[in-house]
């Protein structure tokens, strides 16, 4: 038996072991844990680039301009790494649907006085 896949007219064969796999129907943002792990990887990569830059500056000490270039590259790396690690994607702006009414909407007609 075959089912349809994703509403695009594709046929997905059943019995392939993916019956329990959830179907993605929205473009949900990644979870906080996934986002944090990605930022940690970027931070570790950038901080890991600093030490090799300093080693290369030491190896190229006889070519002063190349050594200076590696030092200049390595100096702002910690600052940039922290900025990137602390940067979260902007939150989606959602308009809140609030009920708005004018002050007159509560009682918009005159009261009748009934003598009785």
Automatic annotation (TrEMBL):
It comes from the Bacteria. Residues 1-23 are annotated as: Disordered. Keywords: Membrane, Transmembrane, Transmembrane helix. It holds the Pfam family DUF3099. The chain crosses the membrane at residues 67-85. InterPro entries: DUF3099. The keyword Membrane applies. This is DUF3099 domain-containing protein. It comes from Amycolatopsis thermalba. The lineage of its organism: Bacteria, Bacillati, Actinomycetota, Actinomycetes, Pseudonocardiales.
């Amino acid at each position: 038996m075959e089912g349809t896949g994703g509403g695009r007219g594709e046929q997905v064969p059943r019995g392939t072991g993916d019956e329990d796999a959830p179907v993605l129907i929205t473009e949900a943002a990644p979870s906080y844990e996934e986002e944090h792990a990605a930022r940690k990887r970027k931070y570790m990569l950038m901080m890991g680039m600093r030490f090799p830059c300093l080693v290369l500056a030491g190896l190229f000490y006889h070519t002063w301009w190349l050594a200076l270039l590696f030092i200049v590259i390595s100096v702002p790396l910690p600052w940039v790494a922290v900025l990137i690690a602390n940067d979260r994607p902007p939150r989606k702006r959602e308009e809140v649907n609030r009920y708005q009414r004018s002050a007159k909407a509560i009682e918009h007609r005159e009261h009748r006085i009934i003598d009785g």
